[in-house]
Write a structure and sequence with these properties.
Elements lengths: L1 H4 L6 H20 L10 H8 L10 E7 L5 E9 L9 H10 L4 E7 L9 H16 L3 E9 L2 E4 L13
Helix pairs in contact: 4-5
């Protein structure tokens, strides 16, 4: 807001409104999906998850809990990191999935750098989480990464092992 106030002719109200626009757009797009959206396809997952990262300047990781029919039971921001990393512990994912009676989960995070490819850390934590969820009978449907208008699906790119997703 303070940076916008330096622009000639910019008032405080206009600057405040402009700084709130990313959050307003995100809320609007999420509300357009309805009370209990269904995520069955990769396209559904991308449509649901993309608005979560509008205007995000640091890495955020979300978890979406699904029932057996793919209805969203719960969405939670698990952690906010820095501009180039976010920490995620399998225990947090397992506890959240159990708390919300999830049949399956989708993980999603952003790369503010604009590089959509997963890092080795992304791959490693996804593998550990997939195994932990598999052991308790919960399916890891996908881990999506959003960056620069693109999305990377670890499931579609065969990064998530089949033994933890079947």
């Amino acid at each position: 807001e303070s940076e916008l106030m330096r622009v000639k002719g910019m008032g405080q109200s206009a600057a405040m409104l402009l700084t709130m626009m990313p959050q307003l757009m995100s809320r609007y797009q999420m509300s357009a999906l309805g009370e209990r959206p269904v995520i069955i396809t990769l396209a559904d997952a991308k449509t649901y998850c993309a608005p979560l990262f509008i205007g995000a300047n640091e890495e955020n990781i979300y978890m979406i809990c699904l029932d057996q029919a793919g209805h969203v039971l719960h969405r939670t921001l698990l952690h906010t990191g820095t501009v180039d990393q976010v920490t995620l512990h399998p225990r947090t994912v397992v506890e959240t999935a159990l708390r919300h009676h999830a049949h399956a989960v989708i993980l999603t995070h952003n790369h503010p750098s604009g590089v959509v490819q997963p890092s080795q850390a992304d791959l490693d934590v996804t593998e550990r989480i997939g195994k932990a969820l598999y052991m308790i009978g919960i399916k890891l449907v996908d881990h999506l990464i959003f960056a620069g208008g693109s999305a990377f699906s670890m499931m579609r790119e065969c990064v998530i092992g089949h033994e933890q997703t079947e």
